[in-house]
Amino acid sequence: MIDKKDIRQISPFLWEIARSHRSDMRVPARIFASERMLDQVLSDRSIEQLVNVTSLPGIQQAAMVMPDVHEGYGFPIGGVAATLCPSGVISPGGIGYDINCGVRLLYSNYEYASIEKDIRLLGASMFSRIPSGVGKSGNIKLTRRKLDEVLRYGAKWMVRNGYGYPEDIENAESFGCLKNADPEAVSERAKKRGHDQLGTLGAGNHFIEIDEVDEIYDDECAHAFGLFQGQAVVQIHTGSRGLGHQVATDYVKIMMSAMSDYEIVVPDRELACAPFDSLEGQQYFDAMAAAANFAWANRQAITHQIREAWEAVLGNRVNLTLLYDVAHNIAKVEEHEIDGEMRALVVHRKGATRAFGPGHPEVPMEYRTVGQPVIIPGSMGTASYVLAGTEAGMKMTFGSTCHGAGRRMSRGEARRKKRGEQVLSELSNQGICIYSDSMKGLAEEAPEAYKKIDEVVEVIDRSGIAKKVARLKPKLVIKG
Amino acid sequence: MKEYSFLTHMCDIRMKVEADSLVDLFSAALEGMNSIITGGREPVEDERQQLLVDIESVDITALLIDFLSEVLSETHTAYVAFDELEVLQLADSHLRAVLHGNKVEGFAEDIKAVTYHEAEVRMNGEGYYQSVIVFDI
């Protein structure tokens, strides 16, 4: 275990473990956290896992964790690591099994107060249309040829086939489609596992929420993002479902076998990796992109179903516009400045969100002067945030920030503290409508099981790696 | 002797398996994973299903994880919960076995993957084979 005395404070919210701490470290390990959070983080294996990440061949600058960090497997959740492209490695464990798990935010043309009376009808309308929970099949049936098209074109395929509007593409990270996606790199088993899951929410921490914009912190950004106080907005949090899980499973095994060919030794098997420019590295990158496209298509399908659900209740005056869609389990090739020169890097984000600053060419034109929108979901009883990427974040974290509140209690402990029925009752008393088929799931996702989102976001804002734009209060939650 | 137990993990499931033979270690791991997947739910059909698995891995630890991954994939695609393992051949890096199970309608827990994190098949001080297995949920 890592001891606090091994960690040096280098600014109020940034801590570092020097490269000299362990002989296999190639770069330092950095932790964005308040001191109180750091003490909490040291109680699990997060930082030990972070130190393991620093040993990856080709890693640049530092391995980092955001303040929502918690223990994962291989990489910690909340981790960011960039390796030199193309000679450094790519590690499926640095992306995770739920490839392109991510979140999107739709803003409505309604004040929440004006739809409050219809909230239960909206909830029932969405809950009945969108399959949620463990092992549920979706309503969109794809032939194998069409599934391959989804894997190649992602959200673009959905829009082309009537599941959305062209503007939905403009405001998604990477326009909802990674061009290097290759369906041939995805196994038949992965396709079989995902073929009936398009348009499904899944289980665990996946959700759909109706929120009210509760507070605006930055008027200019909020205006650019189309947000106003009191507005009703919708969040969707889900990923690539079984297809992505299987892609990761397949390639962790492939890379574990291949590592000896490249004389790579890692301290944890879940860090299995291969040089980015190797056959295995390229095949994984193309398969990961296909799974990422499936996830964007999935969130687009759910967006379409939500629009139908709202129109069924509120009529055709409904306008749900995509503010942005961000991935938080993904690897991207990006250019960043290191030691005064721009370098191509493979940026791994596992439970971390891309947050590009103002002026970056990958930020949509309508947001380019203020920075990329970042959506940070909190727990179902607290709040979520909309942030904007900053120039400081580009320099400090490869343009990355946190992805949520981060767990502070295991699922078992959460279940022991409260039953699902109690969580449901407490949230109802706070005026939050809950739709879920799983009382166990509700207990595991209780607000107390998560860190305080306000503190996590405060660290992000005060360290400068992203800035607060708006806070959202949950009004209705559909839990998988 | 074969048994499985659950240890704490912040967000996933950490399971420990112990047995007095490698065959029973694999069997205990299967039973443990099956208990997570079904959560004690009854199958929808009495008719038993069979599946032949033939797996090659880099070593015995990877073989245990790859075996469970194979079972998980089959469970998710065929909606069969496997609870019985009939080993035909087990060597350091090769398993050939028949799985037996029943059709189910759904799952109690959505296991995304069986990870290699912390997995290490080894003999403990009491003379039993053991390993930890972390499931991503």
Spell out the blueprint of helices and strands.
The complex is a heterodimer of chains A (480) and B (137).
Chain A: E1 8-11, E2 14-17, E3 29-32, H1 35-41, H2 46-53, E4 63-73, E5 75-84, E6 89-90, E7 102-111, H3 112-115, H4 119-129, H5 144-153, H6 155-160, H7 166-170, H8 188-194, E8 207-216, H9 219-225, E9 231-238, H10 241-258, E10 274-275, H11 279-314, E11 321-327, E12 329-338, E13 341-350, E14 353-354, E15 373-376, E16 384-389, H12 391-397, E17 400-401, H13 411-417, H14 420-429, E18 433-435, H15 439-444, H16 453-463, E19 466-479
Helix pairs in contact in A: 4-11, 5-11, 8-10, 10-11
Chain B: E1 2-7, E2 13-19, H1 22-38, E3 48-56, H2 60-78, E4 80-91, E5 94-103, E6 113-115, E7 122-123, E8 129-136
Antiparallel strand pairs in B: 1-2, 2-8, 3-5, 4-5, 6-8, 7-8
Helix pairs in contact in B: 1-2
Write a structural description.
The complex is a heterodimer of chains A (480) and B (137). Chain A is of the alpha+beta class. In chain A, 33% of the residues lie in helices and 26% in strands. Chain A has a single domain (4-408, 450-479), classed as tRNA-splicing ligase RtcB (Alpha-Beta Complex). Chain A contains 16 helices and 19 strands. In chain A, strand 12 and strand 13 form a beta hairpin. The longest helix of chain A is centred in the middle third of the chain and has 36 residues, at 279-314. The model of chain A has no long low-confidence stretch (mean pLDDT 95). Chain B has 137 residues and is of the alpha+beta class. In chain B, strands 1, 2, 6, 7 and 8 form a five-stranded antiparallel beta sheet that branches. In chain B, strands 3-5-4 form a three-stranded antiparallel beta sheet. Chain B is globular. Classes of the chains: A alpha+beta (480), B alpha+beta (137). The A-B interface holds A 44, 70-74, 77, 96-98, 133-136, 189, 192-193, 202-204, 242, 245-246, 248-249, 252-253, 256-257, 268-270, 272, 407-413, 440 and B 6, 8-13, 57-58, 61-62, 66, 69, 73, 76-77, 79, 106-110, 112-119, 134, 136-137.
